[in-house]
Structure formats: C-alpha cells, structure tokens
Amino acid sequence: MSGHSLHSSKSIVPTAKDIKLAQQSSRILAHMLLKQGAQFEVMLEMPHKQQKTILLPAPVVGLLVDILAQMAEGNGVTVAPLHAELTTQEAADLLNVSRPYFIQLLNKKEIPFRKVGNRRKILVHDVMAYKLKTDASRRKVLAELAEEAQKLHLGY
C-alpha cells in the first residue's frame, strides 16, 4: 500500500462566478460527450490572442463533466490519485454521506478497507468504484437534460 493521503490532492471550492461558468460548460460538454469519439480537440485562448489546440481523451472530458457538474451545484471538488488512502471521514466526505453511514457500508463489505492499528484506511479507488456504481444514473440524467436543452434551443 502506498500510504499517500488525500491531503496531497488538489481541491477546488467554487466561487459564484465559477458556479455559473461550470453550469454552462457542463451542459455543453455533456452534450458533446454523447456525440464525440475517443478524443476531443480543444482550442485554448491564451494571453495576447495566442491560441493552442490540444487533444484530450474522452475519459478525461467525462471526468471534467463530472467536476463541472459538482461545481455547478456549488460543491467543492477534490482530485486525488486512485492509490491514495482515505480515513473514514475523508471517504464519507467524498461520498457526501455521514461517517456513521459510511462505516455501515464498510461493515456490510460494500467497500473494501484495511486496518492500520485501530483505524480503517480506504483506497480512493475503492470509494470511487462504489461511487461510480451509485452515480451512473445521475450522469445519464445530466446528459439527457443537456440533450433536451439543445433540442429546445435554450442557448447551451
């Protein structure tokens, strides 16, 4: 096991301006993700009117849609390597559930963990695997809403 913690990760707490931008961007990207292939060509506008085009793999764009959707709801977002280990509180926070509820999930063996002394350590990978199972319908609804907005010409 690596021993890396969530504290070495990158966290974002959105401002009101960030929330508005995330709402607009997540709708557009979710719609494009449904129609796009294995990669996305993205043009970046840089200072002094310079432009740079980069290619992003579709899974990265999918993750970006998830990040933007969370920010659009005003939620802070943390990006961490999958091999990082979490405390029960950090894992509960990641799932947006109470620590007692999260411990119930561990006791039911819904999510694997290891004991270090009397403390439980949970891999980000395992928490995210559980989250992916429970969030699949949410992403589907977001994509459907984005598609509906396009059909209704709501400017997204």
Give a description of the structure.
- The structure is a single chain.
- The chain is α+β, with helices and mostly antiparallel strands and 156 residues long.
- It has one domain.
- The chain has a three-stranded antiparallel beta sheet.
- A hairpin with a 3-residue loop joins strand 2 and strand 3.
- Helix 1 runs antiparallel to helix 2 and helix 1 packs across helix 5.
- The N and C termini lie far apart (44 Å).
- The N terminus is likely disordered.
List keywords for this structure.
156 residues; alpha+beta; three-stranded antiparallel beta sheet; two-stranded antiparallel ribbon
In N-to-C order, the SSE pattern is: EHEEHEEHHEEH
Q: What is the total domain count?
A: 1
Oligomer: single chain
Number of strands: 7
**How do the strands of the widest beta sheet line up side by side?**
5-7-6
Could you give the topology of this structure?
Blueprint: E1 10-12, H1 16-35, E2 39-46, E3 50-57, H2 58-72, E4 77-79, E5 85-86, H3 88-95, H4 99-107, E6 114-116, E7 119-123, H5 124-151
Antiparallel strand pairs: 1-4, 2-3, 5-7, 6-7
